[in-house]
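Entry for 2-deoxy-2-amino glucitol-6-phosphate complex. Fields follow.
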Amino acid sequence: MCGITGYVGHEEAAPILLDGLSKLEYRGYDSAGIAVRDNDGKVRVVKAKGRLKILSEKTDGGTTLPGHIGIGHTRWATHGEPSEANAHPHISDESSDSSAVVGVHNGIIENYHELKEKLIAKGYKFYSDTDTEVAVKLVDSYYRESGSPLEALEKSMVVIRGSYALAFMFKDYPDEIWTARKDSPMIIGVTNDESFIASDVPAILKRTRTVYYVDNLEICRVRAGDVKFYNIEGESRPKEAVSISWDAQAAEKDGYEHFMIKEIHEQPKAVYDTLSTLLKDGLTDLSSTGLEDSLIRNFRGVTIAACGSAWHVGIEAQYLLEGLARIPVRVELASEYRYRDPLPGFWEMNSDTAPAAGPVAGDLVIIISQSGETADSLAALREAKKRGAHTLAIVNVLGSSIAREAEFVLYTHAGPEIAVATTKAYSAQLVAIDALALHFARVRGVITEDKERQMTAELMTIPDKIRTLLEEKDRIQWFASKKINTRDAFFIGRGLDYAVCLEGSLKMKEVSYVHSEAYASGELKHGTISLLEQGTLVVSVLTQNRVLEKTLSNMVECKSRGAYLMAVTTHGHFEVEDIADFTVYIPKIDEHFAGSLAIIPLQLLGYYTSVARGIDVDKPRNLAKSVTVE
Ligand code: AGP
């Protein structure tokens, strides 16, 4: 979604704003703009539809906009088409080159229509279709009354409904930027004599590692090297800066052609680093999360809520937690969970217990999210808390909203993930779930310590086995180039293999634009099989012994209807080659963990198909990395 940058200091602001925006490109956008105040107090705004490159060319790398203070924005259209007029920054007064208020916004103002009507009645005119222009003019209306940015923001926050990260420059405060935030991310970086505003850490890493995370409903006054925080009542609040440990290199391509392939290669490290924090002396150890064994013993069930790939991890978790720890699990799309008034743990209901809406006190709700900012997942977390559930967040981004609001946090250690399509964060989540399931299994007395040791030893083989699989990437590249014109693809598997298929299929469609669906292979003949035509690509995953022959039969059914078959199976199942047209073998591993290996060729398939089709693989159309609106 939208990206925000801001700078106040002694250097030229525009090149810094543009550079910061380039680090936020991964969030997805369709237009961009910057506003810089010069030393005479005049603000110049330049905007461009399309890629940041166009904005950079228009401003000659920022050099045509002199000034030491400014704000920048990449816009992912919500209200109004992608166009220069709708691009941010927006201004309160078109007829002046020193507009009273200039602002950028990330999020959605839900009551913008109602606010716009009121502002029109007050005499305001609008030049764009955006909710942001409404916010800027609303703030302007209060600013005109009091002359105080703080008061104008406080009053605006009371009437605005929705989510926002806002950054403003006010005419009479030429050395300050003001920000306000609710449910959309925003950080402030500082040095001795400069301050930086951004939607995410990579935008400022080159310049500083000292960062403040802006809290919900917090207002902030940013001067060069000096940041002050206020609550919505306008009272000043103390805040500690944190030091970011990633290096800037982690957010660079490092010689790889794209972030996605770089991040695919970083998976052994992401998995190892994540496991290292969850295993101790051969056993799982969740002490870093704060979740205590006494609680784990008493959970009646687990609900998992997440979106997209994180939801796929949830599906995998359901098989693992139920299979290994014998605890009932249900998996919810966060966007549905938040509105559907869920009943108490379904596992408790029997004919004598009348189900009643109410708190799910005593149950555990797990929210899985790479960014920790996904609006639906954050709302699901709040819903679960409201109902009295214990909450555990599995999150990759330190200090993100979900991490801060959950009762317990399990951090994955994938490092910054830039490509829109998740790969290493997904893999880190998978092994986090593996460790969690093993821990629950031992603590709840389902498996012995010996068994756990044996299984954690298996888990620790995953990084090397992923490395081995990556050595075979040329074969997948060759196969992808052969199937470049594929129109449809189907991914089939049973049990844990089905969970992997869901993710493999998403990778294919999101980056290569090939229509793709995942099906539990037993379900094909209940409808989907009618879609198969001569040459349709069917990708089967066969790592689960108990159902392997069943999926083989389903492959035969597809083949006899003309499908072209790719199979991913475990080394040793050479019978698969008799049926499949192209087979990839994964190294042998305990079947519970095979998903961590089977996904690798599927990620590579999506990646190489995208590249062969000439698609912008790191920034596929219409998608945003972190979905901070509903
Ligand atoms: C996956 O490749 C997607 N980009 C998307 O489905 C993503 O997993 C989803 O939006 C959830 O994001 P989160 O993990 O940051 O909450």
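NOTE: The first helix runs from residue 13 to 23.
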